[in-house]
């Protein structure tokens, strides 16, 4: 009988705690990633060879874009799911699809667009059309 009462009771505290833990986890994760990448960027800027420095900073930029894509889709999906009671099931389904598909689709595009050879090829394609 106690389980029935627990399952039928008010779960707003559980939702609030779940959202709080998720946000705290993401913020802590972002702080640690930020500290890590700031050290990497600082070390990259001290590299004397310009090509090596550029390559290191380019790689960091790609990683940060992918991380931003994953975290923004995760957090928006989580917040909408937990907070927006008035949102329809279609909105929840759409956000779930974005959460699952967007990082997977954008990750290769970001890494390919950041590759020098592909960037040069795309630039020549766009110059031909103009």
In terms of topology, how is this protein built?
Layout: H1 2-8, H2 12-45, H3 50-83, H4 89-113, H5 116-129
Helix pairs in contact: 2-3, 3-4
Task: Report what the structure shows.
- The protein is mainly α.
- The chain folds into 2 domains: 27-85, no CATH class; 95-129.
- 88% of the residues lie in helices and 0% in strands.
- The chain is built from 5 helices and no strands.
- The chain has helices at residues 2-8, 12-45, 50-83, 89-113, 116-129.
- Helix 2 runs antiparallel to helix 3 (50-83) and helix 3 (50-83) runs antiparallel to helix 4.
- The chain starts with a helix and ends with a helix.
- 1% of the residues are buried.
- The mean pLDDT is 79.
Give a nutshell description of this structure.
This protein is mainly α and 130 residues long. 88% of the residues lie in helices and 0% in strands. Helix 2 (12-45) packs antiparallel against helix 3 and helix 3 (50-83) runs antiparallel to helix 4.
Query: Could you give the distance between the termini?
Result: 73 Å
Radius of gyration: 21 Å
Q: Helical element count?
A: 5
Please tell me what the overall shape is. Answer: flat
Run of helices and strands: HHHHH
């Amino acid at each position: 009988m106690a389980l029935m009462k627990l399952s039928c009771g008010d779960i707003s505290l559980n939702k609030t705690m779940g959202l709080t833990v998720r946000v705290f986890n993401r913020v802590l994760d972002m702080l640690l990633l930020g500290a890590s990448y700031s050290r990497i960027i600082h070390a990259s800027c001290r590299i004397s060879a310009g090509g090596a420095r550029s390559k290191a900073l380019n790689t960091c930029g790609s990683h940060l874009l992918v991380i931003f894509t994953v975290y923004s889709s995760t957090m928006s999906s989580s917040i909408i799911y937990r907070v927006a009671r008035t949102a329809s099931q279609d909105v929840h389904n759409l956000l779930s699809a974005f959460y699952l598909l967007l990082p997977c689709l954008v990750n290769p595009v970001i890494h390919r667009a950041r590759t020098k050879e592909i960037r040069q090829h795309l630039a020549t394609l766009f110059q031909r059309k103009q």
